[in-house]
Amino acid sequence: MTRLPTYFVSHGGGPWPWMKEQSNGAFDKLEASLQEMARSLPQKPKAILVVSGHWEEKTFTLSSGATPGMVYDYYGFPAHTYQVQYPAPGAPELAKRIQAMLEQGGFKAVLDPERGFDHGTFTVMAPAFPEADIPVVQLSVRSDLNPKAHIEAGRLLAPLRDEGILIVGSGLSYHNLRLFNASAAVPSRAFDQWLQKTLTQSSPQDRELSLLQWDEAPHARTAHPREDHFIPLMVVVGAAYEEAGTCVYHEDFFGNVAVSSFRFGPIGQDQ
Question: 3-state class of 121 per DSSP?
C-alpha cells in the first residue's frame, strides 16, 4: 500500500460542472486540475473523506448513510442543477471508524446517517471521479472554526492515508462573495502570495504557526470575512503534518480573483 497525499481544493462557484454552456470556459482550468488530481494518484482510493466548507456543526459530524442523497445548497441557479446526481456510495463503517479516531483523540464526534453530499463535495468529486464508484464520507467543519482544533483533528486522521483513503478539504482559498470583482484583485493576490509562501516554502513548524495566526496575513479578513471555506485546509495540513505542500492549481478567476489548490505530501510514497 502506498501513502496517499492530501488535498485542499478550491471548488469553484455553485454547480459549475453542470453549467459549462453558460460559463464560457471559466472553469476549464479548475476542471483540468481536479481531473489531474485523480489521474496522478498512485492507486485508486478505497474511499474518499471530504471535509466540506459547506457543512458546519457544533461538533465534528460524519455522513454515515450507505446511499447518501444530495444537498442542493445554492440559490438562483438553473432548474436542472437541482436535479443533478452524484450517486457514489457512502461508507458507514469507515464513518464509524473515523468517529472513533476523533473521539480517542479527545474530540466529540457524531454520525449523521441522513446527510447527503453538498456541493462542496459533488462539484469536486464529479469532475475528478465521474464514475462515482468510490465510497465517499463527508466530515463537517466545527462551527467554532478553530484552526488548532481542525489541525489536531487532521493529525488524528493521518493513518487513513496509509490505508488507501484520500483526504480532501473542499473550500476556496479566497471566499468573499461581496467582493468578487475587479476590486478583489489586490487583496486576493496578496493573500494568495502569503498562502503560497506559507504552504509551499515554510517548514512544517512555521507553516502550522502561520496557519494558527492566519488572520494576521495580508488582507486575511478581506479574503475570508468568515473562514468557513478556509478551515478545511487545516484538516488536510494536519493529516500531512511533516510533508511539503505543492500548488496544483492557480489562476486569476474571472481575471480578477486569485485562487489556488494545494497537495500535501508526494504523489506516491511507500509506507
Answer: helix
Torsion of CA 211, 48, 116, 108, to 10 degrees: -50
6-10 and 165-171 beta bridge pairing: parallel
Closest CA to 118 of 141, 145, 151: 141
221-244, pLDDT tens digit by residue?
999 999 999 999 999 999 998 899
Taking Cα atoms as reference points, which of 155, 128, 116 lies closest to residue 41? 128
* Closest to 30 in 3D by CA, of 196, 220, 261: 261
Q: What angle do CA 241, 110, 5 make, to 5 degrees?
A: 25
pLDDT tens-digit series, residues 79-125: 999 999 999 999 999 999 999 999 999 999 999 999 999 999 999 99
- Give the start-to-end residue ranges of the domains of the chain: 2-270
One CATH from 3.40.830.10, 3.40.50.300, 3.30.413.10, 3.30.460.10 for 2-270: 3.40.830.10
Q: For the whole model, what pTM was predicted?
A: 0.96
